[in-house]
Amino acid sequence: MPRVLSIAGTDPSGGAGIQADLKSIAATGGYGMAAVTALVAQNTHGVRSVHTPPADFLRQQLEAVSDDVVIDAVKIGMLGTAEVTQTVTGWLAEVRPPVVVLDPVMVATSGDRLLSTGAEKALRQLLHRVDLVTPNLPELAVLLHEDPAQTWDQALDQGRRLAGTYSTAVLVKGGHLTGDAAPDALVVPDGGGGFAVTEVSSVRVATKNTHGTGCSLSAAMATLFARTGNWVRTLTAAKAWLQETLETADLLDVGTGHGPVNHFHGVWERGLAPLPGPAAVPGGFLPTVGSEEPGAEGPGPVSTSAAPGGSPAPAGGWTAALWKETAGLRSRIDELDFVRGLGDGSLPQESFGFYLTQDAIYLRGYARAMARASELAPRLQEQVFWAAGARNALEAELDLHRNWLGPAGGTGVEQVLSVPAGTDVAAAGPVTRGYLEHLLARDRYAEDRIEYARLVGAVLPCFWVYAEVGARLQRLNHTAHPHREWLDTYADPGFAAATEQAVAILETVLAGDVAERRAAQEAFTGSVQWEHDFFAAGTLP
Ligand SMILES: Nc1ncnc2c1ncn2[C@@H]1O[C@H](COP(=O)(O)OP(=O)(O)OP(=O)(O)O)[C@@H](O)[C@H]1O
Ligand SMILES: Cc1ncc(CO)c(N)n1
Questions:
Q1: How far apart are CA 51 and CA 164, in angstroms?
Q2: Centroid of ligand 1 to alpha carbon of 185 (angstroms)
Q3: Closest Cα to residue 540, out of 413, 352, 328, 346?
Q4: 197: alpha, beta or left, given left = phi > 0 and alpha = psi -120 to 50?
């Protein structure tokens, strides 16, 4: 568990500053520590007064930690004075923690100043020493000596200038803009004068309880980066978590002004289940890498770095539980003659040919199920993801079938593909038919959101079981394996990354209400059973 140190001011009402940081670090899977820069008498209405202990005493706090504890990440918040800022800069130079995130706190949500004007110069020096800086729009403007951005494009431009000036990654935060979205973007200098810009947007939550969102987000970023080593993943996960804390903020009853966010709601809702492993992306927010240029290929807009040869991890407690629940069924899949034969290359050609022809029929229906999921998706990123998934099943995966079967077998595939979509396919075996009926049984549920939950559960095993089987079989692989191309497709890191995104969407759906959860769980378990039957049928040409 990463050991994360917050260096910040206090909020005795618990919503911002160090108190928020400790909650955020814990909620996102870190061990939280804290050194206090300033004692702030504040509540949900504003700041009453600030007491700054001697800078030398801050130095003693910092050394007490670093002399004893290995620090995996640092989050810096309110600094208050130039002397405090210089103390932190000096300590960082000696200790060199691996990750430093700076939230350049200048003004509280309430409008109260939290950084003396004389300290801005010292803050600029500190900027050279940090890995990520997370200014809100007014802070971004002050750091650049410019006027605050009025539009998101201006904000991104300013983000690029700040990143260029200080050679540091910048998280541009759109929380202060108006509109339906709460966009954020990571701007990372590429070393050659350019920038990689990754936008992660969420739907703006209608709540006045936003006290401490900036503190909470930056502490979560420090923690999640220590866990993932990847800024894009970190932002994706942090935003998904922050969104959940904002969506449930009104359930708290803390103060009568701008109340705090609900740091632990999602964590507790999931029943204190184990946190996702470093490879998992919790929540349903799918990043668009290079916002200027949406990903054109592959099932998802982004290719993250699932470990080659490993199968995708659950995205959180719900998917972990479901994955575990189907462990018995999945191990029966591994023991099937068909799957063993695929693994050791002994599978007869006719069996593989029969399987591929059935699979070609299946893929067309499967693509329809994903297209329907795209139609019903409540969030833009999911709409894009399922649409891309449908296209990928029809193009990349079907091409594999055509190529593999070659001209002779290909005739069979072309024949089944020439039948109009949605009509009865004479060549479909009973299992193919059954599986497709399960996937496309759309009229059983009246409400769209329930049908969406059911579809997400139903299509998921085809990603997840295949990514797992693909990864496992490839580990057994010999160089001249007859089904190598097939194994390569499903053991591909791009496929694993798409699977991770699909699993993250499933996690979001499962975290919905009981009806959504039940629909997704039943559909998922049903599809794992169908996957088993589909492979089992493959041995009977
Ligand atoms: N109403 C909202 N709904 C969804 N996300 C929000 C909302 N308000 C803020 N955010 C998100 O919270 C994070 C912090 O945003 P903001 O730009 O407000 O920072 P800040 O001003 O530093 O925060 P603070 O209120 O702690 O000073 C950003 O990720 C932003 O997109
Ligand atoms: C101590 C502290 N840090 C940061 C903020 C910004 O919200 C605040 N209100 N208080």
A1: 35
A2: 13
A3: 352
A4: beta
> What is the percent of the chain with per-residue pLDDT over 90, rounded to a whole number?
59
What domains sit in the chain, N to C, each tagged with a CATH number? 3-269 (3.40.1190.20), 317-537 (1.20.910.10)
Whole-angstrom Cα distance, residue 185 to residue 285? 13
The complex's ipTM works out to 0.94
Ligand 2 atom at minimum distance from 103 CA: 4
The pLDDT assigned to 271 comes to: 57
| Closest atom, ligand 2, to C-alpha of 110 | 9
Mutate-to-test residue for ligand 1 from 106, 137, 173, highest number of ligand atoms within 8 A of CB: 173
- Distance, CA of 196 to CA of 190 (rounded, Å): 6
Asked if 97 and 74 touch (Cβ cutoff 8 Å), the reply is yes
Query: C-alpha distances in angstroms, 244 versus 18, 181, 247, 261, 378?
Result: 20, 15, 5, 9, 15
CA distance 313 to 306: 9
The verdict on the CB of residue 259 being under 6 Å from ligand 2 is: no
| Nearest by Cα to 29 from 380, 270, 194 | 270
Q: Which residue has the higher pLDDT, 497 or 289?
A: 497
Best CA proximity match to 37, nearest among 81, 90, 95, 100:
81
Query: Region 269-281: what's the mean pLDDT?
Result: 45
Choice from 75, 136, 213, 224 to test ligand 1 binding pocket (greatest atom count within 8 A of CB): 213
Measured in Å, residue 467 CA sits from the centre of ligand 1 at: 36
**Distance (Å) from CA 220 to ligand 1 centroid:** 13
